[in-house]
Fold these 4 entries.
Entry 1:
Amino acid sequence: MFNLEESKWEITESGGVGINAYEIAFKGGYLYLKHSETSKIIRLMFGGAGLGIGTPSFKQKPEEMKDMLSGGVAPPKVPRAKTVYRFPMGGNKLTLDEIGGPYLMLDCGANYFGGLNMFALYFLGKAAAGLTCTPVSFPLAIHLAYGAIFSAGFTVTGGKGLTATVTGGLVSAETVFN
């Protein structure tokens, strides 16, 4: 389906938070990536909104909103997928310009005051220019993406239930160690 190649980047630390409020989803977080050849470290901050579905129900009372909050932090010692992949059609080397900019995230989780979260974060860069935000454009955006991160991990959460979200937003990329 998609040709994936390992990039020279690997995840050293990550964390994030997600809120599902009715059918609206908000996601945000950070990633630290280290380049295997140059030892350069970059920090990525991302945030965006999109559509989400979840249980126990869509129409919760305001006092039950805490059940829709989930998030977690994965310190460097916690086992997780570390590889950042690149798509040959999109990016050549997965530079800061290719990593920063628009992103698309597919995310699902199962929580009961702790849980499991899996996500795919696609770096769209210039590939997203001119794409409209419709379900039809999602496969095209993923196909044109520069790179992606696929990960799973344990979360600590104040909520309980199952969630599935599709969010889009912006990634800011900056060098923290050169």
Entry 2:
Amino acid sequence: MTDSLNTTEKFLDEFKRFSIKDLKNEIDVYNLLESIFRINNFQLLEDLAFSSKYCVGLYHILSQNKTEVSDDYKKEIEQSFSETVELIKSKLNEIIRHFPEFERESFKSRYFEMTHAGINNLISLINDFSEIKIFLNRRKREK
């Protein structure tokens, strides 16, 4: 467990030196990362970060609301966005199943409830992992 805590702190310190943006959900990101490092599944982080970056791109397309885009294209983007959000929730569930029950339920109530606050929280968390994807890409290029 100490190794996963050290790895998480080192990872976030490196991220903070790289990024000009602060994580909006730093405590939850920390807990998610610590769980990923504890179960030794870095691929899960890669997948979550990739899906988050893709989701943010789709969200930006949807929020532009350009009139010259066909209705079919909009529906396709909306469907891809919905599917990607569900995929991200699935990845998050995979991670939080390793949380103690109270923390797991607290996380679910903050990010998975279909309320205005829950959806905003989830989008905010997705944005955080999108930033982590940018950081991971840069780390790969520097190696």
Entry 3:
Amino acid sequence: MRKTLVGISSLLVLTACSQSADVAWKEACNTVMADPDVQRDILDAAVTVESYCTCTSTQVAALPEADRDTAIETLQMMAELMVEHNGSAEAAFRQLREAGRADDATPEAIAAYDNMDELGEQLEEFLDNMRASGGTCPV
């Protein structure tokens, strides 16, 4: 598991260097939001996944650089784990939690696990703002 997370972290660093933050966010967002359980909240807010990911990308880009990079890296790690688990956010989070709590956890795994709650709160806030704006992006 540790090797998997180290490999994913290395891939994410290389990916982030080769593409803009906007593109990196949108790709990871679309992967994570493809899970039916995750997608349900977005659709209940009368928002499409595409518009949600585009809007959240704009909001993430406005964050301070360190916060933006942390959000992108955490979402990308979640997306990569979801790919490994046939699109299941629950299974990906379970692996992320186990890796972050392991005795031999890498700093990247610990950081990703620690940042999941904050990222989840940010994503909920972004969705609430869109819901309050009638399904449109408030920024």
Entry 4:
Amino acid sequence: MLPMSDRLQLLDKYIVPEGNTQGETYFGIAHSSKDRLGRLRVTTEAYRGREYLADIPEVGLNRPLSDLINGSLEEFTIMLSELSGGYDEIFMEEGIVVYDLNGDRTDGIYIDPWEFQSIPIVAKNSKGEVVGSSRLIMANDPLPLPTLKTDRLVSPEFKEAVKQVPLEMSQLAKSDQVNELVKFGLFRIAIHLSREMGANEWLATTDSFVMRLLNGRLKFAIKEIGQTQNYLGSDSTPGWIKVDVTLNSVAENGDRNLADYLGGKFGVPGFETFISL
């Protein structure tokens, strides 16, 4: 993995531009507070639509949400510990929904402790609005990856093999105004970023329906490393993604155009309006 100084340079390289042409979707890293909040709102709306957040508490805070995401994990947990209700402990276990007491409660965002050690990835439309979300979580910076944090997700026979995996992909989501193809653009950026960081493998605990789609019709060849179980409100399956294995499988057994696009080629039929590195 690249040292932190090189990771920060990587962030600058992949800043997603403001779109200004009709019909194009831009992909890259969310660098500004506006884009980072936009990413979290897309994720929150998608999670609410699937009822993943039904049991997650909502907490009103007397400060702008942009201040929260620009701080540190330690600062955020200290602030929560000053409130009654044990919100700091809930946050560390499963995340919480926070909203600005001086704003609209319905504009709250779901946030978890891994937000502070993630590279946030977004898709933006031609108006500059965030319409897609994902992130790559970096291991042990300071927390272990979410899939490895609890003993119950990964089966014993895989624990030794995956304990050094450096990244986890999560929060792959889109807004209702764009189609499912946007998720492939987010996946492509994650592949580019991980390669530049010297990593070829990720973990991902994914909704089981999505896992069946990825491994079934799309031929992503994700290794399932645990049993399906309820995780953050969804029946989910932990997976181990080896990027090269996935790209080869999609190319040989699935859609060659999709494999070319995910692998970094430009002008691929079906993806002409997707602007990404």
